[in-house]
User: What shape does this take?
Amino acid sequence: MINARVDTYLVGSTGRAAAVERARRYLEAGADCVYPITLADDGEIEALVGEAGGPVNILFRPGAPSLQRLAELGVARISFGGGLHRAAHVHAQGLFAKVHEGQSPY
Assistant: This one.
């Protein structure tokens, strides 16, 4: 799976045209999906999905549309980045703190 990262939204929007152009070039070069990192705006996601010419991957994070909404917008793939790891780490720290205090972590 080649998931080509489109950084135009990461560095401050240079306009949708630049993102679409980059997405199309990646897809023409053989990418399976394009990944406009940090894009979280419903309207922009929907427009990019419609114009990219191939599957679009969105990073699910705080501030992003819900999983259901991303599906409604036509998003083909959803990434969670380091978010799941961070959440698991915070949870584990709480468990370890209980053990350290002599309490059951369960």
Notes: The chain has one domain: 3-81.
